[in-house]
Amino acid sequence: MKLFVVALIGLAIGIDADTGVFPNSSRQEHRRAEQVTQVFINEFHYDNAGTDQDEFVELAFPSDMFNLNGYYLEFYNGRTGNNHGKRYDTIALSACINGVLSGGKRFCTVNVSKVQNGNNGGDGLALVDPNNLVLQFISYEGTITAVQGAAQGMTSTDIGVQETRTTPIGYSLQLGGTGCALSDFTWQSPSAASKGGVNIDQVMESCGSPTLLPTEFPT
């Protein structure tokens, strides 16, 4: 029976190529399975016409969590050369500004300055939980293999869409689709930003409370 339960959990936390869920070791997977599909990067902005303005990252998470204290974002350089894969910024999500509630989710936003624009190899960001486990490692305009930070040794998932120097001011990259978990959504081409709430092409449904998992597993 124990092996059967472990097998079911393994199926529930597989990698999603569109959204960038990234597995750690098997024991770490068990620890993160409860949250990995319900706490995620939902929208961000990094480039626009003229001087970059209002760069930000928005997170979605279950409403009964109230905040993301202990979680943080790491930003990674994908530029070809000596800095490839290096972390260039870290932001604690205790400063995340809560927005609206919808479908059992809270949305919060952190404003970020000087997010790199993905030139010459792409750039990326990782969402990390209070146990220093990477829940998401995504990139734009290319892929990155991190050489430091929580994502060290991991290769990012390119979200497949990007902003450019002609993207209108006030636009962003957003997840779209219908559902409640990260795997229900895919990244969309730039559209008018909806920071702090449900995205333009997104219908958020309630997942209910996360299923609690045992903390120890047979080796």
Give me a quick take on this structure.
With 219 residues, this protein is mainly beta. It is 8% helix and 33% strand.
Low-confidence stretches: 1-15, 211-219
Structural class computed from helices and strand pairing: mainly beta
Mean pLDDT: 82
The secondary-structure element order is HHEEEEEEEEEEEE
- Tertiary shape: globular
Sheet with most strands: 7 strands, mixed
What gap, in angstroms, lies between the N and C termini? 14 Å
Q: Total number of β-strand segments?
A: 12
Percentage of residues in strands: 25-35%
Report the helical percentage: under 10%
Number of helical segments with 4 or more residues: 2
Radius of gyration: 17 Å
Q: Could you explain the architecture of this structure?
A:
By secondary structure, this protein is mostly beta strands. Strand 10 and strand 11 form a beta hairpin. The protein contains two helices and twelve strands, in the order H-H-E-E-E-E-E-E-E-E-E-E-E-E. The two termini are 14 Å apart. The longest helix is centred in the N-terminal third of the chain and has 11 residues. The strands form two sheets. Strands 1, 2, 5, 6, 10, 11 and 12 form a seven-stranded mixed sheet that branches. A five-stranded mixed sheet has the order 4-3-7-8-9, with no helix packed on it. 41% of the residues are buried.
